[in-house]
């Protein structure tokens, strides 16, 4: 059993992209100067999105599916240029893949390249279904949604348990991985002994049974002329197993008890393998489970319906995936690209939508659960209902008082502020005339650090011009990781601490602002769609004694979980769908 | 020749959806009460997007392509819920379509349902291409991009000419349509006489020549045993013509001169048919042109390259489409769904990207050109470079002074304001204490009209509560089309005109605001991504004598064309890519 591979591949893609985006800074700066173009926040996000879509594309050889996966599941924001950029990266992946497959055509690279660009080709299936078949197909979808939601629920519990175990140190982590792998090997080897042998259909001739690596019918413990159907599924590569189980016109090939055992062991293994310290994915285990579920349903319903069992397997896989991952368009395209059968499209779409709807009634998608467990500040696309009843001003008031800087600030104050707070952005205020106040903008921690490092200080409170700063600071210097304030601060003399910094050239004078009465729900949508890092809250009223800023919100502040920490009474309201 | 059908179908889809969204108001209000849920701006846009994707889906039987078309080309904003909503609507379309095709299987409905769900099936093509073939394929892409850009340029000129003719009245419109159709019929009938007859390949037996509606080889003016290859292309339905020209292993079937004539006449007809008063589309004419272009290139390059001519035709069609429409992912998927050959995917992606890049170097996409000619306020996804050099405050200052209302306003003032301006939204100001000012929010014209119609006036300046308004006004009443102010105003008595309206319950207190120094480029992105109708500009400085609002911008104000009208000196800067 391999563990599914899209997880590691997506990781590798995203990490490579991130690495590339950071190539312009730090120790590679001198050598990779051209990479400085990626040295801003937006381009880095774009590159990571491209990396993730390339990973999916490489795992499933599904270029369009990869683009849509990134669009539907990975990115919290999207701009039209990103569409053709991800498309370009998956196109490159697929062209390179195709080149490798061509090189490996005659088996030079082990099993790589088997199946060409389409992993589970079922294009030879002639699909026959009629209006009357919609009822059993609906059943596949509904049950798939329920099973998917159940899978998410159990995986959530297992992952929480694993988090506790993994927190105990490396040894515990290793022991857990070892225990799971011993259990996996034992289970996979011993279970096929539990089922009886099946006689080969003479129509297959020499193809049944086989003893080699590949082939549909594994002899295992059976006499010649017989095959072990469970071994055929368990002792093959995942790709072969999926092809076997998707194959049509093979209603009698697998026994009900073998399928039940296969389904059960994959459920257990899928659940217990995912969180251990071994790279593994979600797609392939769920596809295998789903196709077994589809075939089981086919055997159960065989008396009433005459749909092909292979079709049931495909639909079962789609239903379970959608029930667990809750994607629609991207799953549909990935499925299309895996199976190469366009005629299955309408019925697959139908099943996907039903399973997603049913699953959504129970719990969030598996990706949301994992992100939540890892504590990543992923903003969900749909704000919760109760967010409408909370104003951003109230949310900001529940935080510690906002730390602001003046537009010409003493060096000692800047050092003090950087030391006492971990914030990455500070609102800059100004009072140009008595009674007139100004929210001048937002200055980033990294820019303040760059100024301190270069000691670009003024002896008096004069205003500098932007070109002066441009001459001194390159954009690469300003975008660098800032390092520790303490290291920089100890090098400053008392005279320097008494000098001034003019923040005019370093301040973003047009940060996104919202009025304090705006609902958190509306702010979350703005935050997500515009891909913000900081959102400044301005007061509703303007007057001489009113400060021009109320607070500042970040992604972490807007996460439902964190808001509920400060406002627990909101929790008893339901989520919008 | 049929004219392409995605144009009308997309229109019908979008119009039906719009109709549905307006069903909750006006004369259908009583009967279709449930439709009131669609009675807001956001849902109406969503429905129109769903309608457009359903139209594309129905035209090409491409459900996923339809979703992506809407995503890439139609929608100026996108939210994740929209993805599965459009997906659901195209899934419904495709299930219904499949039902109809099943009913019509035995030819009961004319030619409907021919070809099943896949229009130009080329799945039997075994694609063979190698790394060495990338060079001619690149040539297909580059030339396709150039030709597509040229097509856009000429179509632009033709449409401008047609706009002049159509403006002369209905008779001119009719005469134009008649002239084009006479020219089309004459050209299509007479041109095949210009090419010599081709002897039938004996391998085809009785299939060549044919005289009926369908079939690959039209006899036309030729003796028995011969066929007219140009007639085979011109006198078939578009679907048959495309299938003919895409067919593989048919290098000798079409003569170079026939293909050149076919390409030429389709160029001329495609260009001259699009703008006339007849529903027509862009996709099919361009696919046909492109496939002819591909075959012509194949014949020219035949000496050097051994790629199949049918493959050239497919790639040529993709290149020309991409060169003219500049879509990537959606075109790729539509192509996949039209041709049902997944193995073509990598090479199609490659050609699409090249043609798009080449085309973008010359002019905008054909859809942008058409939208621009129709004067629709479509905000482009990429702001122009020069927009970075203009602040929204300057833009607002170039407009007439913003018209504001007080939060408790005299009826006569409201009537006067509504009469004197066509605006749909008005900022509402308040001065709760001396020296303290407040931008209370934005009130919509339709809400003011609703208040005037119901005569919900106050005799003194008191503040009403929101529940009082909720009791009096249903959400449907507030969302209704407002009608003419003059009709409402004449019914008001002088006493009523002297009374007050409290705008508190009708004001959106958290409109999107930006500071006056924000660049227009940044504002455009915000406007588009958050799907705004109005954007309020607030001042940079706050003080006792400074008004809390600088101006208000709408979609029209942010269109590049309109900004350049007020700031022509910005025009000589280039566009960002």
TrEMBL record, chains A, B:
It is a multi-pass membrane protein. Keywords: CBS domain, Chloride, Chloride channel, Ion channel, Ion transport, Membrane, Repeat, Transmembrane, Transmembrane helix, Transport. It comes from the Eukaryota. PANTHER family: CHLORIDE CHANNEL PROTEIN CLC FAMILY MEMBER (PTHR11689), CHLORIDE CHANNEL PROTEIN CLC-A (PTHR11689:SF67). The chain crosses the membrane at residues 47-70, 82-101, 134-151, 171-191, 259-277, 342-359. Its main location: membrane. It is found in: Membrane. This is Chloride channel protein. The gene is LOC100502532.
């Amino acid at each position: 059993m391999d563990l599914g591979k899209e997880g590691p591949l997506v990781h590798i893609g995203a990490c490579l992209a991130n690495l590339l985006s950071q190539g312009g800074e730090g120790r590679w700066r001198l050598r990779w100067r051209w990479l400085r173009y990626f040295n801003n926040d937006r381009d880095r996000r774009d590159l990571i999105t491209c990396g993730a879509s390339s990973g999916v594309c490489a795992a499933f050889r599904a270029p369009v599916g990869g683009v849509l996966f990134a669009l539907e599941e990975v990115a919290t924001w999207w701009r039209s240029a990103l569409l053709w950029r991800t498309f370009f990266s998956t196109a490159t992946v697929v062209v390179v893949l195709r080149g490798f497959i061509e090189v490996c055509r005659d088996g030079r690279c082990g099993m790589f390249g088997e199946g060409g660009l389409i992993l589970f080709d079922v294009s030879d299936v002639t699909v026959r279904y009629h209006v009357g078949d919609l009822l059993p197909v609906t059943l596949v979808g509904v049950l798939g949604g329920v099973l998917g939601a159940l899978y998410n629920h159990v995986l959530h519990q297992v992952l929480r348990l694993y988090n506790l175990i993994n927190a105990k140190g490396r040894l515990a982590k290793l022991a857990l991985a070892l225990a799971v792998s011993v259990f996996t090997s034992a289970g996979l080897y011993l279970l096929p002994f539990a089922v009886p042998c099946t006689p080969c259909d003479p129509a297959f001739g020499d193809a049944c049974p086989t003893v080699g690596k590949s082939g549909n019918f594994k002899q295992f413990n059976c006499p010649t002329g017989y095959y072990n159907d469970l071994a055929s599924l368990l002792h093959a590569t995942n790709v072969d197993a999926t092809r076997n189980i998707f194959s049509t016109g093979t209603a009698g090939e697998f026994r009900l008890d073998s399928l039940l055992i296969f389904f059960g062991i994959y459920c257990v293994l899928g659940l217990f393998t995912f969180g251990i310290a071994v790279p593994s994915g979600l797609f392939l285990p769920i596809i295998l489970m789903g196709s077994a579920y589809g075939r089981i349903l086919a055997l159960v319903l065989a008396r009433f319906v005459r749909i092909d069992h292979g079709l049931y397997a495909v639909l079962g896989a789609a239903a379970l995936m959608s029930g667990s991952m809750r994607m629609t368009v991207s799953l549909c395209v990935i499925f299309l690209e895996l199976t190469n059968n366009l005629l299955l499209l309408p019925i697959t779409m139908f099943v996907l939508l039903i399973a997603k709807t049913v699953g959504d009634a129970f719990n969030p998608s598996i990706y949301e659960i994992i992100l939540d467990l890892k504590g990543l500040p992923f903003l969900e696309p749909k704000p919760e209902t109760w967010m409408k009843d909370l104003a951003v001003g109230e949310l900001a008031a529940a935080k510690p008082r906002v730390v602001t800087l003046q537009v010409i600030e003493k060096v000692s104050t800047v050092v003090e502020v950087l030391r006492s707070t971990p914030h990455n952005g500070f609102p800059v205020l100004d009072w140009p005339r008595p009674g007139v106040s100004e929210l001048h903008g937002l200055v980033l921690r990294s820019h303040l650090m760059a100024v301190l490092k270069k000691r670009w200080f003024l002896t008096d409170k004069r205003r500098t011009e932007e070109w002066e700063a441009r001459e001194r600071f390159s954009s690469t210097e300003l975008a660098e990781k800032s390092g520790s304030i303490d290291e920089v601060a100890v090098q400053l003399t008392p005279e320097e601490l008494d000098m001034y910094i003019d923040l005019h050239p370093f301040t973003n004078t047009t940060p996104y602002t919202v009025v304090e009465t705006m609902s958190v729900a509306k702010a979350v949508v703005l935050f997500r769609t515009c891909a913000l890092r900081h959102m400044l809250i301005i007061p509703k009223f303007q007057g001489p004694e009113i400060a021009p800023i109320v607070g500042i919100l970040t992604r972490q502040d807007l996460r439902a979980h964190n808001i509920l920490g400060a406002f627990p009474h909101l929790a008893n309201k339901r989520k919008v769908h």
